[in-house]
Fold this protein.
Amino acid sequence: MRGLIGKKIGMTQIYSSAGNVLPVTIVEAGPCVVTQVKTEKNDGYVAIQVGYGERKDKHTTKPQKGHFDKAGTAPKRVVTEFRSVPGFEYKAGQEFTVRLFKIGDRVDVSGTSKGRGFAGVIKRHNFKMQGFTHGQSEYLRHPGSIGQASDPSRVFKGMKMAGHYGNKKITALNLEIVGIDADKNQLYIKGAVPGAINGYLTITK
């Protein structure tokens, strides 16, 4: 398996073997169950579909329930796909845990960033505030000019302006696993990962 689905528990600090303080994010990774093995013949591509987290039957549609019943597992809250490892034989209902990883592994962690609603250019794009002097009173946090006058008589696409900030898929690359608690299915990942506490994540080798 190339990775697992997990949930962000929170951040803390641990000490390395050299006595240095490391900021870490605790992620509950797995256990993940294989819900479908996709093949070139049946699906047009090769992948492994896995599920994580329990979902009540009353919140599961009949087609979804039939899909999970076929795999011999309870309904799952989150389902995603990973590339398969060549030569490894996957079976529906197979379970993977944090034992998939080892200390020192480098992983990419994907999640949905915190939504911050409608934000101005200073918060959203790190613009500088306008000057406080020369009679300035009302436009300290405004963006200023957004284009030219009669030529080209339009605003170019991609202009940085106020708007919806956050609530997007973000991937933190090349993070190091500095600790593993196999009993609690938890990974200690050095640094910060996207999203809020209890947000769902994808951890990929």
Remarks:
- The longest helix spans residues 62-71.
